[in-house]
Amino acid sequence: MTESRRAWLISWAKGLTAAIVLGLLLAFAGAFGSGEAPLMDRLVYWLPTMLVGAVVGGTIADGFTAWPAMDERPILRGFLMWLTISASLSVLIWAMTNLMFGRRWEPIEILSFAGPVTAITGVMTLVGHLLDRPIQTHAAAAEAPPARFLNRLPPRLKGAELHAVAAEDHYLRLYTDRGTDLILMRLSDAVIEMEGLEGAQVHRSWWVAKEAVLGAKRGDGRATLTIKGGVEAPVSRRYAPALRKAGWY
Fold first, then answer.
1. What sign results for the dihedral spanned by CA atoms 81, 84, 90, 93?
2. Alpha-carbon distances of 221 from 205, 209, 234, 238, rounded to whole Å
3. Is there a contact between 113 and 90 (Cβ–Cβ < 8 Å)?
4. CA–CA distance, 183 with 168 (Å, rounded to integer)
5. pLDDT confidence tier of residue 162, bands split at 50, 70 and 90
6. Tens digits of per-residue pLDDT, 173-186?
7. In this structure, what are the phi and psi dihedrals at residue 146, rounded to the nearest 5 degrees?
8. Of 130, 132, 199, 215, nearest in space to 161 by CA
9. pLDDT tier for residue 77 given thresholds of 50, 70 and 90
10. What digits encode the pLDDT tens for the residues 4-57?
11. Of the chain's two ends, which shows fewer C-beta atoms within 10 Å, N or C?
12. Which residues pair with 215 in a beta bridge?
């Protein structure tokens, strides 16, 4: 199992654990008028609802995150994600309520769930957007071994200074002070192995070493980093504020 796959599974495990905790809290509190039902009925209602909701919401969020065109439109992505998750969860909670409490299947009642679901989802989407930051890697301590990714450099680039890595289809283009080369690997896996090198994933397709940055320029509302060797790396709008605050440009 790759480390990126493991990290993805850990992230999902944390989300499902949070859903279970939230389901327990809602069940014991008798939230949203469910307090009249016996505790066991509330547990049977809230736990599956929160778990299924976490899976639905997480799947939708993963889909929007993996949509390359949305990298440069973070506000639009967040808005569309919010609407899609809100609509899906409103239908889900309506269906779960009907199944659990034997209510009549009246589609118009979905609207009664849409208001609170949309409000809660909006807050969660906003928090997620504010917490979204570029993945940064850090320089290793003096006694620490070098970054594992350096072992993947082709023989002719061994010992070279790594400036940047760019994704090209299923390959990675390596930019070093000794030239460039390609290796077969995913950028998400590579970034994990770059811990020990000070840098950041500045774009969906680019990781850049901080010491390799010579300057930056802006055009059409976008920033571009100029790297040693004359290479230019785009900066995603979703990451630009955090990188600017960190002193990258």
1. negative
2. 19, 23, 12, 12
3. yes
4. 10
5. very high
6. 999 999 999 999 98
7. -65, 165
8. 199
9. confident
10. 455 456 667 777 887 888 889 888 988 766 778 889 988 988 898 888 888 888
11. N
12. 226
pTM above 0.70, yes or no: no
**Cα separation, 242 vs 240, whole angstroms:** 6
Structure tokens at 30: 């008798």
What is the amino acid identity at position 122?
A: G
Residues in the chain: 249
Both tokens assigned to 233: 């790396």
Q: Which two tokens stand for residue 232?
A: 């230019």
At residue 168, φ and ψ (nearest 5 deg) are -135, 100
Alpha helix (H) residue ranges in 38-73: 39-65
Distance CA 21, CA 50 (A): 9
**pLDDT 10s digits, 58-69:** 888 777 766 766
Residue indicated by tokens 């979204």: 132
**In 69-150, where does DSSP find H-type helix?**
74-101, 110-131
